[in-house]
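For consistency, the fold was encoded as tokens, which produced the following:
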Amino acid sequence: ADAERREAERLRQMQEAEEARRARLKALRQRGEHVWREVEEGIERRNATGYDRAAGLLLDLQALAREQGGQADFSRRLASIRMRHEKKGKFIERLARIERDNGGDDG
């Protein structure tokens, strides 16, 4: 009974997380190009909070690109961001994780 309760709770939490993700992606779609400006603004803050915000938005933009078949455009824009901000080491570390995830779905 305990195991069943834990499993039911785990499934409920997964469902809530998925619903929250879908809501974020829907909001992202509605905000359109403005989201990319928010990414740049986060990076320009040059602090951990800004970098985390930018990286989080990029992860959501990546998920949206996958859903909508826009992966090539996302990859191009991500490469452009990397080039423009290559001297911001802590941000590039966050970006490397996104890029690893971006390229890891082919096999």
Residues 2-31 form the longest helix (30 residues). The mean pLDDT is 90. The CA atoms of residues 28 and 34 lie 9 Å apart. The helical segments are 2-31, 34-44, 48-68, 71-84, 89-103.
